[in-house]
Amino acid sequence: MSRGGIQGFESERLSQILAARRLSQVQLAALVGVSPATVSKWRSGSQAPERETLERLAGVVNVTPEWFTRTPSAKVSLPLFRSNASAHVAARAMLEARMEWAQDVALALSEFVDYPAPNLPTRQFMEPDEITSDEIESAASECRELWRIGRMAVPDLALAIEGAGVILIREETGISQIEGLSAWSSALARPLVLLSADKDNGYRSRFDLAHELGHLILHRFIPRPTERDRHKQLEQQAHRFAGAFLLPAETFACEVRTPVTLDDLLLLKKRWGVSVGAIVMRLRALKILDEEGAQLLFKRRSARWGAKSEPGDDDRPPERPRLLRRTIDLLVEENVMPLDSIPRHIGLAAHDIEMLACNLTITKDRFFGYEPVVNARADKCGFCRRGYLAAPLEGDQFLLEKRDVNRMRISSASQPKQARDAMEKLARKGLLSVELFTSSQKTNIRLDLKAALEQVTDIREQSLRLLRRFTPNPLDAIVLVDMDEALFKFLRDEAGLSAQLHSAPIYTYDQLASMPALAGARVLVFLGVIDDHSKVRSVNAQMRVKAPHGDVAYLSVLTIVDSAQSLRELEMFLCYGERGADTFTFKSAISLMLPNLDGVPTSWTQELELLQRMSSDLDQRLAPALQTRLSELLGLGIRRDGLFIEGKNGPLNIAADFVYLNTDGDLSDISQADVFAVVSNLLATARCNNVGLATPPGKLPGTVVKNQSVYGQILVNLAALCPRNLRDYNDAILRAAFLRASHLQELNYAVDEGCSAEVLAILVAEVDAWNSTHGNATPEILMALACGRLKLWPEHLERFVRHCRLAITDNWALQLLDIVVEDVNT
Questions:
Q1: What share of the chain is helix, strand, coil (3-state, %, to 5)?
Q2: What is the spatial distance between Cα 403 and Cα 706, in angstroms, rounded to a whole number?
Q3: Which range, of 130-134, 544-548, 797-801, averages the lowest pLDDT?
Q4: 86: helix, strand or coil
Q5: In angstroms, how far is the first alpha carbon of the chain from the final one?
Q6: SS3 for 194-216, per residue?
Q7: Residue 130 contacts by C-beta under 8 Å, 6 or more apart in sequence?
Q8: 554: part of which helix (H) or strand (E)?
Q9: Which CA distances in Å does 267 have to 37, 260, 262, 276?
Q10: H/E element holding 720?
Q11: Rounded to whole angstroms, how far apart are CA atoms 352 and 360?
């Protein structure tokens, strides 16, 4: 913790600014007027600057003072630099910092817009030696198929790659040796590419962009190399991908006349947008030219034009990014944010934002050579309100397309036997709870691990079996992740492995850095609950360094995934090593499919924010029932009951006819958290077309990408929770659970008049039953509408509000209805 100075000073921001501005600590100290030792203390976190000094520091490096107190976003994955051997360390650090700033800009703007969904082929290569020429050709071909761009020349690669969800930045770096870099951002859940604009050559820039695309697809899971030969291998593979993507074999080869001449290649250069040098390399890869023929053409090329330029290089201007630039245009044009507030909102200087957003000159009358496009925010667009929305971007225009809705039906097929068995083991025992307020990426359903191992014989015995069968012998080290050491020792002793494991040192996740590296080490990684896959992948990355060529067994008590495909990918990642797919071991005592939150606020977070806003309204006093609910939400943040608003008859409970859990025993043993977990599991399975975790790998469906185009994701055929689920599962607690566990889009019936009419009938019947001691889901329904989670066709919503005002006279209901009307009007 910092001693003295302002509170909340983030030392990592100082390191970031030093790298981005290419300043040393001594240089910065001289500019700010402090000693180098003081800057060193700021950077280490042992001291923070005083208010006046901070303002002076911010002025020197041209950021806002408040920027230094913002928590940095998660770092992007380690970029793979072009021309690795000649790139200076300080230059790399500067570009990494600029990449992180680009992430900050994109994150800040994402508060107002939804970027296109990432749409890249998935490859799980762990080593470059796995990647064959055929694999590269296949990946390039699949990318074209996903983007629907056929096999001809790509008109605008920058537009295509932004339409595939990639954040693209092109700026002058002042570093000629580095032409581009790329990285994956966990904070944005998408990749970023930074291209150098120092060389104004459109042909080279296109190839550089395709090269970085190759890295993103082929090398996402391969650790960044330090050996020169390994780095060269990755670069050659990215080059091969760029050639295969820009010059597809099926069509490009047919246009090549033999014998090949430089004049013919100039014509192909203009047609395909690829330099003559890159075309020669592609002809060599396709075996149209042999090595001798390719070298002869290169020599003739150098003799005629020189080594660094070709005729026509100035004919094609570099393709420029649009996404961040147009987002800023939209915010200004729609009066979402004043022009001069954008830098303050992001925290960076206007110059930095202009550079990262493609040299944007932020003026309201500049349209960059294009005709003005009429824009509207989604919440203010009349088309969106009526069920239409912006769809494929063709050239530079958005079209409007009617959104079709797939009805997501929950049925017995949504609960495979494996899921039913898992829920039967976990329910009724007070093991499950729900974390109400979290913005994490993982699930908000929690397991009492200690109680599960003590109370559930099947889980304990399966965990003991895994320990006995898969623990390496002899054992050099034990790593515990989200597992109490005393609990692990209990399991060790129960498994009869005390003598075998007694001498092995135990490390926790936080102690991994201190674990000594040992070639050929045998390590047991024992995990309590795997619900944070990035954490497990981090452990795996460290194990590859700590136990190279070793034997690592990953054993977990409970593994939570959002799909069968996610489980297969996790298994592949953890098991893959030097000896192929079965180098290491990964086993779990029990697996369960639950949806990830993906950083979206929970329904309880939305409810709390709404009630606090209503409570602060001086024009009216919060109704007693809502005040009681607010007090409840301000209590324990993790709970088994009290998840749902009470009905007319008190807390919501499950009925005896619930088909997704055994209800033969005492129904009071089934908590609200148990019901929420069951419904969450059903929804997760339904989202995967009812493909359960026990599905064999060979029968898993491939990645389904609906209605994609090169210009962006077309938002049609989206899934909505089938109204029959709300009709047939008429227990109040089930309706409440569906309203709480569903994604926002799944409850957005405002986009389909037919679905909305069916839901309206169900809601009206529930409200009508309220005064007769039934209709206990009414409070949850009104809260979902007031929070904006549940949406109806506009006319249906108006009709429902009018009906409610006649049917219910309770103050809490009238206040929530006022919020619904207020939101509709605004």
A1: 50, 10, 40
A2: 13
A3: 544-548
A4: coil
A5: 44
A6: EEECCCCCHHHHHHHHHHHHHHH
A7: none
A8: strand 551-561
A9: 61, 12, 9, 9
A10: strand 718-721
A11: 10
Query: 182 vs 225, which has greater pLDDT?
Result: 182
The backbone torsions φ and ψ at residue 247, rounded to the nearest 5 degrees and listed phi first, read -130, 75
With contact defined as beta carbons under 8 Å apart, do 525 and 554 qualify?
yes
Query: pTM score, two decimals?
Result: 0.55
What is the β-pairing status of strands 718-721 and 405-408?
A: parallel
Q: Please give the structure tokens belonging to residue 17.
A: 């600014």
DSSP tag of 667: G
C-alpha 630/C-alpha 623 separation (Å) is 10
Strands 405-408 and 388-394 turn out to be unpaired
Say if residues 584 and 552 touch (Cβ distance below 8 Å): yes
Q: Which residue has the higher pLDDT, 784 or 698?
A: 784
Q: In this structure, what token pair is assigned to residue 181?
A: 């870099």
600-636 tens-digit pLDDT? 889 999 999 999 988 887 567 889 999 999 999 998 8
SS3 (DSSP) at 407: strand
Q: Beta-carbon neighbour count of residue 67 at 10 Å?
A: 19
Three-class SS of residue 185? strand
Q: Across the strands, what pairs with 718?
A: 405
User: 3-class secondary structure for 340-373?
Assistant: CHHHHHHCECHHHHHHHCCCCCCCCCCCCCCCCC
Assess contact for 332 and 339: CB atoms under 8 A.
Answer: yes
* Cβ 216 vs Cβ 222: under 8 Å: no
Strand 718-721 to strand 638-639: parallel, antiparallel, or no bridges (unpaired)? unpaired
For residue range 71-127, what is the model confidence (pLDDT) as tens digits? 888 888 777 665 544 446 777 888 888 888 889 999 988 888 889 999 999 999 999
Q: Is the pLDDT of residue 551 over 70?
A: yes
**The tokens of 337 are what?**
């944010």
Residue 524 to residue 480: CA distance in whole angstroms: 8
By CB atoms closer than 10 A (0-12, 13-18, 19+), residue 791 is buried
CA dihedral of residues 718, 724, 727, 731 (deg, nearest 10): -80
- C-alpha 463/C-alpha 478 separation (Å) is 16
Task: Please report the sign of the dihedral spanned by the C-alpha atoms of residue 459, residue 460, residue 462, residue 466.
Answer: positive
